Amino acid sequence: MSVGNKIKHLRIIHNLTQKELAEMIGVKPSTICKYEHDKRDISLETLKKIAEILHCDLNFFDETTNKNTYTFITKNISEATLYKFIALDKVEKMYNK
């Protein structure tokens, strides 16, 4: 799963709009859209802000790891939220076959 998809999935399960997330990190909503569609690179500082807001470890966004990505969603996240993330991931995989 790409960095953009991970951002989108976590944003959705935290019930945030692109506009709300953009305001929280100090960018335009169109920038969040570009991040989520992997159309724009994200600075490390911005990614740190996003990870903090979305309650996940920064390593969660590392695309080079072979570990199960769900193990990196660790900070203050409920089991129900984790299941929402997994469900969104499965739906996306079905549509991207």
Please tag this protein with its features.
97 residues, mainly alpha, 5 helices
Mean pLDDT over the full residue set: 80
Low-confidence stretches: none
What structural category arises from helix and sheet content?
mainly alpha
Largest sheet: none
Measured as a percent range, the helix fraction is 55-70%
Q: What is the tally of beta strands? A: 0
Overall geometric form = globular
Briefly characterize the structure:
It is built from five helices and no strands. The chain has helices spanning 3-13, 18-25, 29-36, 44-53, 79-95.
Characterise this structure:
By secondary structure, the chain is mostly helical. 56% of the residues lie in helices and 0% in strands. It has five helices and no strands. α2 (18-25) crosses α3. The radius of gyration is 13 Å and the shape is globular. The model has no long low-confidence stretch (mean pLDDT 80).
